[in-house]
Design goal:
The protein is 26% helix and 32% strand. Strand 11 and strand 12 form a beta hairpin. It has seven helices and 15 strands. The protein has a five-stranded antiparallel β-sheet, sandwiched between helices. Strands 6-15-14-11-12 form a five-stranded antiparallel β-sheet, with helices on one face. With 335 residues, the chain is of the alpha+beta class.
């Protein structure tokens, strides 16, 4: 299994580290030389922008698999002053720091999918996806789902896991937080994902019961499952433990109900709750690596961005910094 890579980028020596990490992941995925070159340039430009304009930050690299094809998702998150004129900054040759000004333009040209969110005074986040065969995103579902999962600092393996299963009317999502950190926690959360994928036809509460039985020989985990049905405009949610599930709608934020306990050890109640869903709603699932009082109120227009970009911004700005952190976002697919 290829792990998510987290590359700190604080000085001029580290864009090279981001490039090497990205190309190493691409080689593991079997990318050809031409696509490896695209990956190298995108990683270098994204990381260089963090150093030159962003006052430091990090690059997150995640392996992707969709319809039998592999890809890489890169997220560049900085701590800088943001971009005053985003449209201008995407034009090659435009730079306010004396550089060649090819960074964002190169990323836009070379990535199959790219997105950016920036506010003056609130930093910048850049998303790029590159596939083995150049193309955009395929939608087998009316939903788009994206997320980030970052290990606790000092750990090479994250104790959190997440997964999504698309269907014709929406998708099912799972987030699992294995008890503790490191390989033991990862074993529990990945077993939860395995059962979720095996029992995809079951309802959320039923899947939790199967996960509970499967995790008895592990450390156990907090797990939440949400099923989003766009046809009926309904969300079905079941959770045990401290995974936060929230529905963000025009009327505000509504937290979904999760029961106390730890699957695999002590879990007395596993029941489902339903919530309304609209075409403008967001669903957010997050592990306790994020503070519980996160909010998107200060990010105008962010609901229109790619869900992985939304998740990354929540991670960047609301992570506790002392735990595995996972955020998954689902929204109506762009037409």
């Amino acid at each position: 299994m290829i792990e998510t890579a987290v590359v700190p980028v604080m000085d001029a020596t580290q864009p090279g580290e981001a490039r090497r990490a990205a190309t190493a992941m691409a080689k593991q995925l079997g990318f050809d030389e031409t696509t490896l070159g695209r990956v190298a340039v995108v990683a270098t430009e994204a990381a260089t922008n963090i150093v030159k304009h962003g006052k430091g930050g990090e690059v997150l690299l995640r392996p992707l698999q969709e319809d039998g094809e592999c890809g890489i998702e890169l997220l560049a998150l900085d701590k800088g002053p943001g971009i005053t004129n985003l449209a201008e900054s995407r034009i090659d040759g435009v730079s306010r720091s004396g550089t060649a000004g090819t960074g964002l333009g190169a990323i836009a040209r070379l990535a199959d999918v790219h997105d950016i969110y920036s506010q003056p005074g609130r930093s910048t986040a850049v998303l790029a996806r590159i596939w083995q065969t150049r193309r955009g995103t395929l939608h087998r579902s009316p939903l788009e789902v994206g997320g980030v999962s970052v290990p606790k600092s000092g750990e090479t393996v994250g104790g959190d896991s997440w997964a999504t299963i698309p269907n014709a009317s929406g998708a099912s999502l799972l987030v699992a937080d294995g008890l503790g950190h490191g390989p033991g926690a990862a074993e529990a959360s990945r077993e939860a994902v395995r059962i979720f994928q095996k029992r995809a036809a079951e309802g959320p509460a039923s899947i939790l019961r199967f996960v509970h039985d499967a995790l008895r020989s592990t450390r156990g985990a907090a797990v939440a499952i949400v099923d989003i049905d766009c046809d009926s405009e309904m969300i079905t949610f079941a959770g045990v433990g401290n995974i936060v599930g929230a529905v963000l709608a025009d009327s505000g934020r509504r937290n979904m109900v999760s029961h106390n306990g730890t699957l695999g050890h002590a879990a007395r109640t596993m029941s489902e709750f339903t919530y309304p869903w609209t075409s403008t709603s967001l669903v957010v699932l997050s592990s306790d690596g994020l503070v519980s009082h996160w909010s998107l109120d200060a990010y105008p227009g962010i609901a229109s961005r790619d869900p992985s970009l939304i998740a990354a911004i929540l991670y960047r700005d609301f992570s506790r910094g002392r735990d595995d952190a996972t955020v998954v976002v689902a929204k109506r697919a762009s037409r």
